[in-house]
Structure formats: structure tokens, C-alpha cells
Fold these 2 entries.
Entry 1:
Amino acid sequence: MSSSFDVIILNAGMANASLTAELAPQRKVLLLEVEDEAGRHATGRSAAMFFESYGNATVCALTRASRAFLEHPPAGFADAPLMTPRAAMFVADAQGLPRLEAMLSAPGAAPTLRRLTPAAAIERVPILRPEWLAGAALDESGCDTDVAAIHQGYLRSARRAGAQLVLGARETMLAHEAGCWVVRSRVGEFGAPVLVNSTGAWADAGSRVGPECRRSACNPSAAPRSRYPRPRGTSGAGRS
Ligand SMILES: Cc1cc2nc3c(=O)[nH]c(=O)nc-3n(C[C@H](O)[C@H](O)[C@H](O)COP(=O)(O)OP(=O)(O)OC[C@H]3O[C@@H](n4cnc5c(N)ncnc54)[C@H](O)[C@@H]3O)c2cc1C
């Protein structure tokens, strides 16, 4: 085995750059990325919007939990503000109206989301067609985020805390041998008792590269999940 770690994390996109930065002060962490640069896929394509009213209840809870950090990041995390205020309007035609109503009345709906009459929506956005528009909602608490600054801030924090970032790890093969996860790739062989495989939209493909792997493989038998507390405002529902 070329290198041993406490945790190997596959994917240097946004999700795992932040996870690596959180774990690195307490664990020896390897962040392994298949591309030659970090953040090329979903992270590099984000529309960069931050809205507490957007997404399912879990996503909204995570968004709410992120606000304080993004508004007041630790000193040295980034050179410029990570968030810039921006309102968002949600619009629906007659067919989409039930979904808009469900969004407005959901138990965890953001208190900042409010109904607009079609006339009020058109007053704000005159290009909307009155014969199409059946309903609208406005959230003025949203922001544009500086995705690149957040991503780089997390990668910098992870490196400062001792995490190792390895790029270009193509031809990844995963195996579970003698109680340890082994990752073999073009750039070397790495082992750890804990593997985090959350390769975004590639998670299913990633889970097929080795015989012993499961989707989103965080091996509970190798490391009790209780070691890493669940983020505030989330539940275990939907974990796979
Ligand atoms: C068009 C678009 C618009 C979006 N707009 C917004 C928005 O406005 N606001 C918002 O909050 N979110 C938005 N999102 C969602 C947000 O971008 C994603 O939730 C986030 O970037 C996901 O990060 P990730 O790290 O999970 O995935 P990714 O950034 O896709 O990272 C996955 C990484 O895993 C790597 N990988 C794959 N296989 C392996 C392997 N075997 N070994 C190692 N690495 C591997 C890939 O190369 C990639 O770098 C948008 C997404 C898209 C696509």
C-alpha cells in the first residue's frame, strides 16, 4: 500500500471540499479527485443562488444552517464577501399552480417567502405574459453566492489543516480488504478504514467500480457514524 489515511474522500467538488475541511483538523484525510482540477462538474456549473425557500425540507434546513457561515466566514477564508443579496420570484402557469401553492404552504416553508398577485408580479417583471401567469411568490432574503471563493476557501482550509488533495485519480478501483478500504487509481494506491464516496451525479458509476461498494459508501462497520455528528436541522431520512 502506498499511503494510509483515516478517511479517503472521493470528489473534490463543493460537497467534499467542505467535508474535508471539517474533518482535516481531527483526522488524516485524503481528498481524491478523478479530474485534473477540482470543481469541474456540478460545482463549476452552479447558478450560484442561495434561497432558504428552494428545495425539499432537508435542503432548506441545510441552506438555513449554512447562512451564518456564508455571511460571516472565519477570518482568512476568503478575500471578499461570499454572499450578495438578490431576490427571487417563482412563477407558475395554471398547470404549475398546485406546486407553487404546495411550496407556499409546506410546513418548513421559509417565512421570507410570500405570495404575490399576478398583477404585482407583472409590475415587478413586465415581460411576464398576463394570459400565462396564474400565480407568483417572492423571496427577498436570497443571495448570489461566490461559488469559486467558497470552494477555494474550503480547499485552502483543508490543506492548511493537513489534508492531502490528489487530482487526476482516473481508473479508480475500490475494494474492501481486511477491514480497510483500498482505492487503486492511475496515481497510486491508498487505504483507509473509512471511505466517503459521494461523487455527486457520478455516485452510481463510482459504486460500480469495485465489487464491495455501496452507493454513498460510508462504511458503518469500519467507523461508527456517531463519530461525526449529523448537521443540525437534518434527519437520517432518505439516506442510502
Ligand atoms: C446547472 C446547475 C445549476 C445549479 N445551480 C445551483 C444554485 O443556484 N444553487 C445551489 O445551491 N446549487 C446549485 N446547483 C447544485 C450544486 O452545484 C451542486 O449541489 C453541488 O455543486 C454538488 O457538489 P458535489 O461536490 O456533490 O458534486 P460535483 O461538483 O459534481 O463533484 C463531483 C466530483 O466527483 C468527481 N468524481 C467522479 N467520480 C469520481 C471517482 N471515482 N473518484 C474521485 N472523484 C470522482 C467528479 O470529477 C467531480 O469533480 C446547480 C447544479 C447545476 C448542475
Entry 2:
Amino acid sequence: MKPTKIAKLEPILWDRWLLLKIHCEDGTTGIGEGGVHGWQRPTKTMLETMAPALLGKDPSTIEHHYQWLYRSSHFMGSVVQGALSAIDIALWDIKAKRFDTPIYDLMGGKTRDRVRCYMHVGGHTLDELVADGRAKVAQGFTAIRFSPFAPDYHLHKSYAEWADEAVRRVGALREAVGNAIDLCVEIHRQMNPAESIWLGRRLEQFHPYFYEDPMLPDSPAIMGEVQAQCNIPIATGERFASIFEYQQLLDARATSYIRPDVCLCGGLSGSKKVAAMAEARHVKVIPHNPLSPISTAACIQLDACIPNFALQEYTGEAAPPKSDLLVKPLELIDGYLTVPDEPGLGIELDEEALEKYPVEDKILDTPIGFDGSVQDR
Ligand SMILES: [Mg+2]
């Protein structure tokens, strides 16, 4: 194949997301996304800081570029990793397009034809939650994810009150959708370890597929104690940005399902490494995916080439602005995303849509408790 060089990095702030295009001298363009949730502007600045080091370079030496940029500073962190992830995904898109084949084909080949998704469900009241759960099942999804807490969970309630309410909400959804549907319980880090063990034990009767982030994920050893003491599988890892953090999580046996974010943990290269580390411990992978359809497209490429894929997070892409981003939307049939056959990520950006939606910056916000204290989001 004729060599080419990287000609330009084009970060794009679009709605709530940070997209990236990398242009090559031969006209090939790669697409990526950086996933530092809410911190798009600092991550865009990081991409602009890294860009000069990539100009004129061979786009095919993906791991070399990652190592050089990652090790060029004493200090790492999520903004660095978000930028590196966007670059990694775009470079894989370029490489695979130049070989005229999907990315998964270059990463070991297809391990499945379609990707099972879980869909988000919400509702302020119990009735609204159950109605939304039924609606998503009617759309064809076979797994749904929801918070067991009412939106006012941080206001004053006794421990028994809010825990009972959580048990009632999970029980009501199980009764509404039956055992043919998997329930994914998302705690959003809103309990301490003792509370999460106690609630986890009470939720065992409803057979949740996973129990996500039952406590803050920063202490893998303590999360491991929670996992050892309640008999439902924990899923965690969405905030982690490097293979070293995942290693601590896996060594502590803190999780039954690992949740790499392709746009944060080193792109497709980083998440493939995380998946292999998890495979060696019989842990399955549930990629985190709260971003644009570019993130979803990248997740599918990962899901399609690893043996230990379990479920794919999916937030729905049928409404604007997401529905406008791709020339041809990703195919979703009965709750499964189809693994595409097209080269690269298998997507093309709609240039008009890129002009259509202004940047939506994150507003700093987290719940304040009944006594005025700051709560976790
Ligand atoms: Mg989560």
C-alpha cells in the first residue's frame, strides 16, 4: 500500500460531544470521539496541543503514536486519555479504510454478527418507570437499565424508606417485564459500601443482570468486599482511563463485568487490552456508551472482535441531534445492533448536521442533600 501522512487534526465541538476528524494527505479521513464527559473544551485543547506532534507522521503506527504522546508528560489523567482515545479511534478508522475492511477485521476478525444492547429506562414515579420499561421492551430490547432510586433520593428519608423504595421499584419492573428481560440496576455511586451490600442482598431475589457502581469506584479493594458479600454481579469501570486502573479492579475481584469506555480508556487499542485482561479472569465486557453515534460505532467494532463481550450500553439514536449525525444510521433490529460490513468504523458523518447543532457546554451541577451537603453524581 502506498504510504501517506497525517495532514490535519480537526476537533469538532458538536452539541454535548467532542468529535475528531484526522485527514491524511491521500484524502483518507478518520473519525473519532473523545469521552471526557462534560470536559469537551479542555479535551479539545489537549487535542490541539498534541496535533503538531502527529502532522507529517505515518497514520498506521497507532500504538507508537499513543505511547509517544502518553509518555511525553509526567502527568496523565482523563483529559489526556480522552484526547488519546479520539486519536486512536480515528487512526484505526483510517487504517481500516485504507485496507478497505472493517476495523474488527484487523483486530482479530469477527466473533459475532450482532451486538445485544441494553436500553435506558427512566421515570420519576414507579408507574412512569414501569411504563417506560414496558415501552422499551415493546421496541424489542431484551435488557433494560434503570436507577432503583426515586429522583428525590438525596432528600431526607430514613434508610429503611429509601431502601424499601428501591426494592419496590426493581420488584415492580421484574413483575412487569417477566424473566425474559434482563434488568440492569444502575446505582450511580449513590451508596456507601455497607448500604450497597445490604441493598444488593435484598435485590438478589429479582436476579438483576448486573449491579452497576453500587459505591464510588475509587477503592477497588472495598468494591471487592462488596462483591464478595452480595450475590449479584457488580459492573463497574466507566470512569477508568488506563489499563493500570483496570488491573487494580480486576486484581481486587471488584467486578463481574468490566465497563471500558472506548472514548476514554485509550480508544479501541486500550479497550481491546482491557478486554484481554478481563478475559484472563473470566470477566465479561459491557462497554460504556453515553456519547454520540461515533462512540456506538466504535463500541460495535470492539464488541465484534472480542470473545468475552456481554452487553452493549445503548441510549437510543432515533431522535435529533443523534439521528442527524450519520449519513446512514447504525442498524438496530429488535434490540441488537448489526455489525457493519463497511470499511473502518462503517460510518460517514453528515457534514450538514455538523453545522446544525451549537455546542452545549456542561453546567456544573450535583445534588445537594437535605442538610445542604454535597452529594455524589
Ligand atoms: Mg454508569
